[in-house]
């Protein structure tokens, strides 16, 4: 990485210290949530921008037509079954079985999903939310099977990306594209509205190669129950992001989220893209001895996306 | 137990063989679901009786007033904290912690809950549903904490009560009284409507002292995923029984049910009473070498309840 071209990266002061000895500590966020002023040519409505700024997430529906959804779900099925010749290094399997839970570097294993990642409905919105050109920090296909889908405990993605990947500031947003219907009982994304405004400096140092276990069950970098409880009460309760196939959930990098397990017969799948501002490209980790591998954090090719308009299929 | 007084118990032919070597097998239920003809003096509405017969469960709301609910929830809190001097033999704790998950023989540890068990709103309805006088086969307080509430996989209670407790026929009903609000995300009771009509003869013999592990995580006597999937599709999907504190969920002994885990801050608690018809008292287990202990299956004191009308508090 040539830092000469990004003078803003020459200073990498740690604005969000975490994984410290002693107690968990809370501090106010130092960055905007919404980095653009809304105007008539914004890619989302004013009420949507306000909802995102206030709650740290935004659910958008009916963005894709039936042909586009068919193409995406069929492509996802092929990838999950190994049809994309995905190398083992880019796969995560369920703790108790061989079922594929995650395909990493999704944009590199599929032309269709690369096109989706660049779509104006995702990347265009991300540019607006972050007030900058964007690149993919991470991309993946998540698959949560029926009957045995495991829970994922509350966490802030930013806390991990800052500590273990070296992401300097809160200027990233995730977009989750639902590839199955996601109702209340098959493990929908749960969020703590407003939690994006608080940085939780987690207690405890990062173990070596933490990512090898944290992707299955995160144990370091998670907030205390009392803290989650307090933030949830402040927000008037937990929010749940549910919807039909094709629903897109944008959530800010510091919004606390998690999901329950799923004993129902209905599996859950989604395509997940993390957009980071070009001005916020990763540096050395702030609280880990070595950065996580490239499939988790794009360190080598932060290439600005040119958002593409139009349908995904001809 | 003096079988002279119950000549119906002299024949204990096994109408529902289970825990057999080889494959799981399905058969039609041989007993009615609703054992009474509805009439104007029934304790539930005609539509409720029909819903129960068709779906295998019934949710009833707003049965108790604020004073009654306050008394019940305060009593439950005391019991959970050990204030009722509950012996360890009647407690089940969470797999990963010391938190109390279940208090068995609830009616014996609490006068208030004994009164509730005998209440016309519960026992009176149970008499109607079962077309007989009733006794308590089992009673317990369930507590599912926030953040770490564990899932409970799909199962038919009758399958276990028949195999391990010797309950001859499908003539029992459970009543779950919610002691906390129970929404979609804190582990509500999930049910497969219509599944009460099918007996699933489960594959595999019962291990010795199976109940010592099955109460935390049931591994024997559970249906195959494909079977649950098919029954759920027949029903048009899974049902969820949610409600405010005081909601009562009646579910037939053979209705498939389970619950997801709960990462939300909101705990769940309920008082759980199993009413069995006096004519259906337990015999020797049909598929286990020894009966389960008395706290799980009342073998010694099948005393007919006299339903009590009026409020729980003065």
Automatic annotation (TrEMBL), chains A, B:
<dbReference type="Pfam" id="PF05721">
    <property type="entry name" value="PhyH"/>
</dbReference>
<dbReference type="GO" id="GO:0016706">
    <property type="term" value="F:2-oxoglutarate-dependent dioxygenase activity"/>
</dbReference>
<protein>
    <submittedName>
        <fullName>Ectoine hydroxylase</fullName>
    </submittedName>
</protein>
<dbReference type="GO" id="GO:0005506">
    <property type="term" value="F:iron ion binding"/>
</dbReference>
<feature type="compositionally biased region" description="Polar residues">
    <location>
        <begin position="1"/>
        <end position="15"/>
    </location>
</feature>
<dbReference type="InterPro" id="IPR008775">
    <property type="entry name" value="Phytyl_CoA_dOase-like"/>
</dbReference>
<feature type="region of interest" description="Disordered">
    <location>
        <begin position="1"/>
        <end position="23"/>
    </location>
</feature>
